[in-house]
Design goal:
Elements lengths: L1 H42 L2 H39 L5 H23 L4 H20 L1 H5 L3 H22 L7 H17 L13 H22 L1 H10 L1 H10 L1 H21 L8 H33 L4 H4 L3 H24 L2 H55 L2
Helix pairs in contact: 1-6, 1-11, 2-3, 2-4, 2-8, 2-10, 3-4, 4-7, 6-7, 8-15, 9-10, 9-15, 10-14, 11-14, 12-14, 12-15, 14-15
């Protein structure tokens, strides 16, 4: 009876933590995608909005690749630091990383985009704040306090809304993003002590730095792929085309926002001691997610045009011809993320790196060729093809890896 009771309590605790994680993701991304970005699209021309999307894609790639990766390294190395009873390295690495991210971001924005220096500096500050927030929120993951992660994201949502309100007074589009980061960092600093750790190096610094460098490469390539559509389209067709494609794919990418925490939940279950993945279970999960994807596409064909017209009235006319194809590409990518949870757990890391690099190469080459020949519809076809290939490769890798358990 006690064993059953303990298992039930543990299940309820884990379920609650997963729910906090899902809600945290929905709050912040929901406000940014449903309120912040549509308002920016309404206030700025299609070309300017496309530039905003592309620049934010680059900045977010840097933040996730460097800040979030340092967060993961802290989790990986936590036991070793605790065993040796030493403190240091991470604030030292964070300072170096933040300076690097600021310089790279300013350089890219100044050289490749025609935007004001006040905006460039604002984006640089945003990059620093985002990198700090991405790392320091590890304090809540170290203690498994997912409720505080939810509150942190609510604080970020409030920051977004405050920034949008200020935007109507001060025409400076970086404000909502800056305010969201400031509100989150204030909450994190108020509820954690990681920022007070000594800025020193320890005997583990070399090992930690090497691990950090390796994970930056894989994290950067994975995050970059998320924004490849903007990065490929912008140099060839300009900001207006980026706006058109991003709005066309909006509904499908919204599914990705909902499903990303679910992929994390799956990975959490896979990581539980005693969990055994069988080929039958692997294909059952894939079959269920595939059916969900098909149902979503049917739903999307009916609802996506309506939602897109409401949220992006100034861009809808240009985006309408691409909505179905762009959402199909985004939906297949979501199926990839759900299958990726199994592959992350059961396949060798080197296989995953090769898979991501190969996918990125196919995406860029096909996207560039088809975009030049057939315009945005060609790029939609390339995205569908690249994501389909990635999904099939994931199925193969997962099936072969499970066989070897």
């Amino acid at each position: 009876m006690n064993i059953k009771t303990n298992r039930l309590r543990r299940f309820k605790s884990i379920s609650k933590d997963f729910m906090y994680n899902i809600l945290a993701s929905l709050v912040l991304t929901g406000i940014s995608q449903v309120i912040v970005y549509p308002i920016l699209a309404y206030r700025y021309s299609d070309a300017d909005y496309g530039t905003i999307l592309t620049v934010m894609g680059i900045v977010n790639t840097l933040i996730v690749a460097f800040g979030n990766t340092l967060n993961n390294v802290r989790l990986i190395m936590a036991t070793e630091y605790d065993q040796k009873k030493i403190e240091g390295d991470f604030n030292f690495l964070l300072i170096i990383t933040s300076v690097f991210v600021f310089v790279v971001n300013v350089f890219i924005c100044a050289v490749f985009f025609d935007i004001a220096w006040s905006v460039i500096i604002g984006l640089g500050i945003f990059a620093i704040l985002g990198t700090m927030r991405s790392y320091y929120c590890v304090a809540f993951r170290l203690t498994l306090d997912f409720k505080k992660i939810l509150i942190q994201n609510i604080a970020g949502g409030v920051g977004y809304l405050a920034g949008i309100a200020l935007l109507f007074v001060i025409p400076y589009w970086v404000l909502p993003f800056l305010m969201a980061e400031v509100f989150q960092i204030v909450y994190i600093f108020w509820n954690s002590k990681l920022q007070k750790e000594s800025i020193v190096t320890t005997e583990l610094c070399k090992k930690t730095t090497i691990k950090y460098g390796i994970l930056i490469v894989t994290g950067f390539s994975s995050t970059l792929i998320t924004y490849l559509d903007r990065i490929v389209i912008y140099p060839l067709l300009g900001g207006e085309a980026v706006s058109t494609y991003t709005v066309a794919a909006y509904f499908g990418k919204a599914l990705g926002i909902l499903m990303t925490p679910i992929a994390g939940v799956l990975l959490g279950y896979y990581a539980q001691k005693g969990f055994k993945m069988s080929k039958k279970l692997f294909w059952s999960i894939n079959g269920l997610t595939f059916v969900i994807g098909v149902l979503f596409m049917v739903f999307s064909a009916i609802v996506a045009p309506i939602v897109t017209r409401v949220l992006y009235p100034t861009i809808y006319t240009n985006a309408a011809p691409y909505i179905l194809a762009a959402n199909l590409a985004a939906t297949i990518n979501v199926l990839c993320s759900l299958t990726q949870a199994s592959v992350l757990k059961f396949a060798p890391t080197w296989v995953q790196i090769i898979k991501e690099l190969a996918y990125g190469l196919v995406y860029i080459v096909c996207g560039y060729l088809f975009l030049n020949t057939y315009g945005l519809m060609g790029f939609c076809v390339a995205a569908i093809a690249a994501n389909t290939i990635k999904l099939l490769v994931l199925y193969i890798i997962g099936s072969l890896s499970i066989d070897k358990q």
